[in-house]
């Protein structure tokens, strides 16, 4: 008998051994895959629930701070308007002098307008920010 030759009885035993996969191993793998799939689905569902809660919270905060900034701006502008009106009508109507120079009024109106618009833009851009959409082609070159 040559060294490469395997007796037919051993050959048949080897073929049977390698041709038949163990059935309990296949079932175990299938169960493991189903269990992993169920766990992954539960994890994804949990992530979605958390993300929804986060988004609802962000929306509530945005509404709250949008109302607050609106009230602040309206109050601020009403105060400046009151000063401008008081400068014009206090002496003739109420009899006491509330006279601001033109330079003071111009400075007050200009700085208040710039402050209100700046505050409004900063707060609104923070509350209603959009995620940046940078494509890879822009980053690479």
Rg calculated over all Cα atoms = 39 Å
> Mean pLDDT, nearest integer?
76
Oligomer: single chain
Unreliable parts: none
Estimate the helix proportion, in percent. Answer: over 70%
Number of helices: 4
Query: In percent terms, what proportion of residues is strand?
Result: under 5%
Structural class category = mainly alpha
Shape, per Cα inertia axes? rod-shaped
Number of strands: 0
Instruction: Give the topology string: H per helix, E per strand.
Output: HHHH
Distance between the termini: 70 Å
Largest pleated sheet: none
Q: What does this entry show, briefly?
A:
This protein has 141 residues and is mainly α. It has 4 helices and no strands. Helix 2 runs antiparallel to helix 3.
Write up what this structure looks like:
The chain is mainly α and 141 residues long. It has a domain at 57-129. 82% of the residues lie in helices and 0% in strands. It is built from four helices and no strands. Helix 2 packs antiparallel against helix 3. The protein is rod-shaped, with a radius of gyration of 39 Å. The model has no long low-confidence stretch (mean pLDDT 76).
Question: What layout of secondary structure does this protein have?
Answer:
Blueprint: H1 8-19, H2 23-94, H3 102-127, H4 136-140
Helix pairs in contact: 2-3
């Amino acid at each position: 008998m040559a060294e490469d030759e395997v007796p037919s009885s051993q050959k048949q035993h080897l073929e049977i051994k390698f041709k038949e996969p163990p059935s309990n191993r296949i079932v175990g793998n299938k169960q493991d895959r189903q269990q992993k799939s169920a766990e992954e689905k539960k994890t994804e569902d949990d992530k979605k629930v958390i993300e929804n809660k986060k988004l609802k919270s962000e929306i509530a905060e945005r509404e709250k701070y949008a109302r607050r900034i609106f009230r602040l701006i309206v109050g601020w502008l009403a105060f400046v308007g009151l000063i401008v009106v008081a400068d014009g009508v206090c002496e003739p109507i109420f009899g006491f002098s509330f006279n601001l120079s033109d330079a003071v009024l111009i400075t007050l109106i200009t700085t208040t307008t710039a402050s209100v618009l700046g505050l409004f833009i900063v707060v609104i851009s923070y509350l209603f920010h959009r995620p940046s959409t940078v494509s890879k082609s822009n980053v690479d070159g």
